[in-house]
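$ fold --in a.seq
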Amino acid sequence: MTSPPRTTLRGLAIASLVANMVIVWTGALVRLTGSGLGCPTWPQCEPGSFVATPEMGIHGAIEFGNRLLTFVLAGIALSTWLLARREARAGRVPERMPVVAFAVGLGIIAQAVVGGISVLLQLNPWIVGLHMFVSVFLILACVLLVHDAQRTPRASAPLRLARLTEVVFALGIVVVALGVVVTGAGPHAGDGGAARNDLSTEWTAKVHAWSVWGLLALTLLGLLWAWSDTRLRRLWQGLLAAELLQGLIGYVQYFTHLPVGVVIAHMVGTTVFTAALGHLWLLAGAGPPQKTSGSTAAAMKTSAR
């Protein structure tokens, strides 16, 4: 039977994952509504005030609301770390879990700083892209937190499939990075006066699409190799579904000239794809080592009976 503290910890880990996905969506809303400089400075919202004022209008409210979410993420991260540390000392979760939870907290702080720098640099597209990319690694870390809170066992993947998983994970990160570059070349800059990265939107989109097709091919190969194992097959099917949906939305947004609603859907898809990619990698790839104490191992054996 799962102890109440570990049930709470699992809820906190899931909340941390969801919150770090949601802030990507709200960040996209800031950019797509032209509210990136709704708060024209940082850490204050405007000179002399840390909060948005009515005179700043809807853009100030949207940007300030996104900033406020950082405090929600930080609060969840702190609670997760405190409880994970206690549960790890009791041997009920892996010893790495409080370390990962603490790293997520630091990442949220780093994310806020990078976001502030992007405002101070008038939404430089490369800094804005870095702002997005930090969220990718926060989502991956939060998937690990969920696994540790649930003590999710790894799948028994054969060596060639484990190696393919590593390749798919690496290419998946490249695909997301290329998508960030496409965004930096596109028209939605977050503010009418913000610069773009001066790359061709057409060619960056094509290179991004080619990388997605390569990822799809490797995912289909992985699914074929995993077909005889029910658990592995479901892991690969989950990733494939996320890729197909994200690819469909990507093509729709490209050929309909980037309507706001479709672009937001694509950002939602990016976070879902990232979570699915991390889920597969952690369970079927080499993944990070999981060190357990004697009491943790004993607890796992007991729960498995």
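$ fold --in b.seq
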Amino acid sequence: MTSEPTAAGETDRGEQLSYLLSLSRPRFWLYLAGPVVVGVAYAADAPDELFTPATVALFVYFLLPANVFLYGINDLYDREIDAANPKKEDRETRYRGQGYVPAAVGLCAALAILLVPLVGAAAVPWLAAFLVLGAAYSAPPARLKTTPLLDSVSNGLYVTPGIAAYAAVAGTGPPLLAIGGGWLWAMGMHTFSAIPDIEPDRETGIRTTATILGEPRTYAYCGACWLASAVAFGAIDVRLGALLLVYPALVAAIATASVAVDRAYWWFPAINTVVGAALTMGGLWRLLYG
């Protein structure tokens, strides 16, 4: 007599976990966890610094809990907007008011506290920056995603995991040019990802950098951000700058070719993974072979 409620409860929990997994956008997990790997690769002075309690904990946190927090809080405050966004039906899940979602988002934000004793003082401000910007981007009263330019600038939050990881290993932050270059890259990536949402956002009265500029000028804005990023990294090492030139080249190709941006947008998780892997291999080569 008791097996049916138990089975039902297990089914409910399974459905809830499945929904949270979908909400976290698995195809984008490496957007947060990838910078951790890159940051560790360039901060380490010896192979045994690559895998420590701090580096492993940072990677695990930014692989899943941080994504539940970041995309969950976005979905909570975009429920009405997302109802008119076809991307939510085709490629992403749509939040429908499930009561457990706010609790899961809050828990995933709070889990960052567990990292503090592991990562060291130099990394803590970057963890805080991630949480503050992640909340301010979507949640009122700031809701930076509805303020043109600030929506783009605030998305430097995507490089804060890498900066925190570098600081956790090295005890100090990475070069300012690397921070600036990474921030500009994230600005370009965010604004490019907003191009498919221009019409749905305009229909619902949302003002973003992309809706203000329009599609052609948004391409130019993204290209400028990515070119500036390549220049910043090139000032550190010309090989890094050359690798980052793939982004302005890609946006120029997309803007001038007959490729739908909502199709091209879905190429970037793979492109970013390849570029991130190349960056990581460069850091490991430096570590292993000097």
